[in-house]
Structure formats: structure tokens, C-alpha cells
Amino acid sequence: MDKHHHHQMPLTKSASRQRYNEWVFRDVPSDITIEVDGGIFSLHKFPLVSRSGRIRRLVAEHRDSDISRIELVSLPGGSESFELAAKFCYGVNFEITSANVAQLCCISDYLEMSEDYSKNNLGSRAEEYLDSIVCKNLEMCVEVLRQCENLLPLADELKIVGRCIDAVASKACVEQIASSFSRLEYSSSGRLHMSKQANCEDWWIEDLSVLRIDLYQRVITAMKFRGVRPESIAASLVSYAQKELTQKSVSGSNAQEKLVVETIVSLMPVEKFVIPLSFLFGLLRSAVMLDCMAGCRLDLERRIGSQLDIATLDDILIPSFRHAGDTLFDVDTVHRILVNFSQQEGDSDDDMEDVSVFESDSPTATPSQTALFKVSKLVDNYLVEIAPDANLKLNKFIAIAEALPAHARTVHDGLYRAIDVYLKAHQALSDPDKRRLCKLIDFQKLSQEAGAHAAQNERLPLQSIVQVLYFEQLRLRSALFCTYPDDDIKPMHQSWRINSGALSAAMSPKDNYASLRRENRELKLELARMRMRLNDLEKDHVCMKRDMQKSSSRRFMKSFSKRIGKKFNIFGHSSSRESTSPSRHSERTDSKITDRT
């Protein structure tokens, strides 16, 4: 019997009957009829009973009848497998291949074609081929595993599946080790290091994607146990999921897709960053849509949270697949991801304190702070996207905004923009809810442009506008003080904020509102004055700078003016005083503000 590993096309029942008529003895009448899976085989007892212990026992039970009729129920591989076994009994040569060796092992066990009944029987011949040829070739092992899908649980009991899985795992591991050794080289300094090459010698990744999910799971588990690289495991998982969830999504059932997602997640390596983040988000969308187990979704959320700082806005815009009337996007899932990120950041900070005790007072930003800043911008952009949703409750919006620690946002422009969009889309919001929402904003962290917008924003509660104007006033005073520190700029409304809060508690709501409006007008007037003064100072500063540049480029005129100045000292003195005296200039500016008001 030849032992080549060529693939053989399966036969139909009609073709099988035509074929077996070619090799059965025609000159000797049939004395036994075998029925297998609806197929009828008219054969002879002697060749069959000489090789098969099962048929020998069944024939003995019908010893009284001249022609025996036997039905073989639940025969592994059906009529096609039985035809190969019958051929072997009749001495007809055929090829054992990776496409039929699993069937031959199973049928020989079912028919009891062992060495107890005949030397070099079918069972030993198939086992020899499996051990000596198949298990030494990874591609053939995968083919045998595919054939075993329809031969379970017998193929498992005969350890066909286990042997092939062990062979695939050890072969992949050995190839990776050999590949690693081939990449070792000496540097110019004589040190041994790994050369930087493309990592795609794992040709088996594509081959494994043809397996059914239960056998694929067992293969990957064995590979992880053997020490196959996590990057290779991750690449195989991505390849398998893409094939099962995209290419087969049209014909596949939800139950099968759900099983695939849950299995893929359970097989993921524990190492960080080996699974692409976009793939994790894709799996999470599928898990939400297919209503996978809570543990599966939580594992994906935890993995995503650990690298959320490299996510994009499109990644976290996860559609909601629940009942009608719910939000457009799955806000709850994103909130859990943010909680995972915050907890992970806290854990990393604790670890950093334990490891780097001597660097705790370093002024430089840690990677954790950088990640927080990136995620804060991502969250603010996300809030802007979900804010127009009419079904988005205030509590959920606030929960997303508050998911990050207070120090995550260095600028509150993005948060202010999101809250403004929410107020615009939810105009029926009550005043207490508006105040509760605007408490999220630290108006001191608004840029000048955002502060100017907020000061004129009628959607904001009046208390928030007053705060904006107050901080705008402080900003302008600070700018003036930095420009002319010698000027006596008094903090005119230093006690105003405290008095305002104390009075508002004792006043009636109507009087409180009128008081706030009055203070609002006073602040706007004060801001207008200070802006005018600051503009005048900036213009004078530009003119002085231009005059200084002109005078420095004309040295001859400078020396000439010095000589003239000795004779006409009053002209030089008055000119200098007129252009450089801050007090004189301050008086002139104050008079302008007084005139304008």
C-alpha cells in the first residue's frame, strides 16, 4: 500500500457503488450484504471476516442463513470510509493520505481491524502513517485535524487529535527557536544581539484559520503552553477572527459568532500591546452586539482601558444595540473603559512610587500624566459627539466627564464646548441641573477665546457668567501688572466675590437675581475699561519699540543728538520724559477711560 500524502476527492454514494463494482469479485456470487449510511454493498464473507473482528462476530450471529444482511450503524466516515476498509480486505491498493488517514484509523477501530485478526492490518498501517509522516509535517497535521471535525469523539478517544495538536504546537515552537537563532549576529563591538528582521516566518498562522473553533482553541492553548511567541499567537487570533466574523458573517449564525468571539477573547495573551487596539474595539463591538458573556466584555474593556491613550474618537464611538429609545452610542461601555483606565493609572502611580522613590519630586511629567492628558482630550471630543443625543441623560453625561481625575485636564475649553452643545440640545434642562452641569468647568482653565465666548453665552446660568467675568477681570489685571509692575493697580473687587455669596444666601430669589445682574453689569463695565487701557498700553509699547529700532540703526544721528542736547538740555529732557515716564502715561490713559465712561 502506497504511503504518499496526495489529497483524494470524496466520493458520492452512487459513484461509490459504481467504483466498488470494479473491484469486487464478479465471478463469485455475493454471500453478504452490508448497509452503511443508506449505501448497499454486496460483498463476500471470507475477505471481510479475515480482517474485521466486528464483521466476524456479526456473521457468526447469522450462521443459520445462507446470505447475511448486516447494517453498520454510526460507522465513522460513512460509506466512503467503509469502501476503503472493504478495499483493504479485498487486497486492493489505494493511497493513505492526510485526507483519509483519520477516517482509516477510526474505521479500523470500529471494524476491529487490528493485529489480533490479521498481520499488518488496516489499523496498524494507518497508525504508522499518522506517526511517521503526518506528525512530522505541520501542514498535514492541520489537514488531519480538519478531517477529525466529523469524527469526534472517536478521533479524540484514539488520540488522533491530541497527537496532531502536540505536533503542531511543538513544530511551531521549534521553528520559532530556529528562526531566533538564525537572527543572532555579532555587532561591531563584539556583542551578540538579535538582528532586526520582519517577523513573518509564522506561515502556519493562515493555515490554522481553517480549523473549527473548538479544535483551534485546543491548538492555540497547546502553543501557549509550549512557549510560542505572544505576538504570533495574537497574529493568529486576528487572522482567525477576521475570517470567521467577516468572511462568514453572511452565512454564519449568531450563536456561532458569539462562540468565536468568546473563545478568541479567552485565548488572548496576557502581554500588553501584542493585540492591536483597533482589533480589540472591533471585538468589543461584536461582543456587545452578540450579547456575549459579561466576563468576555469586561476583559475586553480592561484591555482597552490599559492602552486608551492611543485610541481615536472613532474607536470609542460604539453604537448602542439595545432597545429603541436608548442612546445612539453605548455610553455605559465607554464609562467602564474610562474607569478601567483611571484605575490602571492609579495602580501605575503606586508602582512608580514603590520603584522610583528617589524620583518622586521630579518636575518632569511622567508617562502617566501624558496618557491622562491624551485621554482627557479624547473624552472631551467624545462628549461633544454624544451631547446632541436627546436621549442622553444628564447623569450619564456627567459620569463620563467626571470619570477622569481633576488634574487630567489642563485646559477646560473642550469640556466647556461639550457642555455648551449639551445645553443647546437640552433646552428644557432646569436651572439647578444647568448649575450642576456647569460646576464641572473650572473657569480659570478657559483660554481667552473660550472665556470671551462664555461671557456672552446666554445658555450658561447667570452664576457661571459672573464667574467667567470675574476671572476675565483677574486675567486682565494680571496682564496689566506684568506690563507695568510699578503702577499702583488696586484690586478693586477683591472682596466682591465673598460679599456676593454671603448676600445671596440672605436675599430672596428675586433680589438675589437682581443683585447678580447688577454685579454682572459692573464686571462687564470694569472689563471694558481694562481692555481699553490694555490696548492703549500695547499700542504705546509697539511705538516705543519701533522708535528704539530706528534710533539704534542710525548711530550718526544719535551722536549728533547728544551734541545738540548739551546745548539744548530742556528739549532732550522733556522728550525723554514724555516717551518713557510710566506715571505720566498712566495718567493720560486713565483720563481717556474716564472720558469714555
TrEMBL record:
Domain BTB as annotated: residue spans: 30-98
UniProt cross-references to Pfam families, sorted A to Z: BTB, NPH3
Keyword set, alphabetical order: Coiled coil, Ubl conjugation pathway
Residue segments, region Disordered: 568-597
NPH3 domain mapped to chain residues: 202-475
UniProt feature, compositional bias: Basic and acidic residues: 584-597
Low complexity bias locations: 573-583
Coiled-coil annotated spans: 513-547
Pathway: Protein modification; protein ubiquitination
Family in the record: Belongs to the NPH3 family.
Name of this protein: Phototropic-responsive NPH3 family protein
Organism: Anisodus acutangulus
